[in-house]
Design a protein that fits this description.
By secondary structure, the protein is an all-alpha fold. It has four helices and no strands. It is elongated and about 50 Å long. The N terminus is likely disordered.
Length: about 110
């Protein structure tokens, strides 16, 4: 059997090892190649700028992006993880309210 010898992280001048690697998160400027979860976060942020009526019309897209982000949860840093949790909570509320709001709007338009 072959064993993989893993090198320990290089420490420059006793600086925390993460300082040796670029730090990217959902607030970082666009990188040359955004990872899939960063693209998904950007799409969700764009959808969250919509007003409520437009967002209700886009509930299926919002749900798809929210589920995509959840699939990448193992890759997320703490800030992205909290964003995902908030998005999933909001998506659940949005998805459960959308049919009710649509029914009320349809009933209202039928009576006027």
């Amino acid at each position: 059997e072959k064993f993989i010898n893993r090198a320990s992280p290089i420490r420059l001048n006793h600086i925390h090892s993460s300082a040796n690697y670029p730090q990217f998160n959902m607030d970082s400027p666009t990188t040359v190649l955004d990872s899939p979860h960063v693209k998904t976060i950007k799409h969700l942020k764009r959808l969250l700028r919509y007003d409520v009526d437009d967002l209700l019309e886009q509930v299926n897209d919002f749900t798809a992006f929210a589920k995509d982000l959840q699939a990448y949860s193992w890759r997320l840093n703490n800030k992205e993880q909290r964003f995902m949790e908030a998005v999933m909570h909001f998506q659940g509320e949005l998805a459960s309210d959308a049919p009710f709001i649509e029914a009320v709007e349809n009933a209202h338009s039928c009576h006027h």
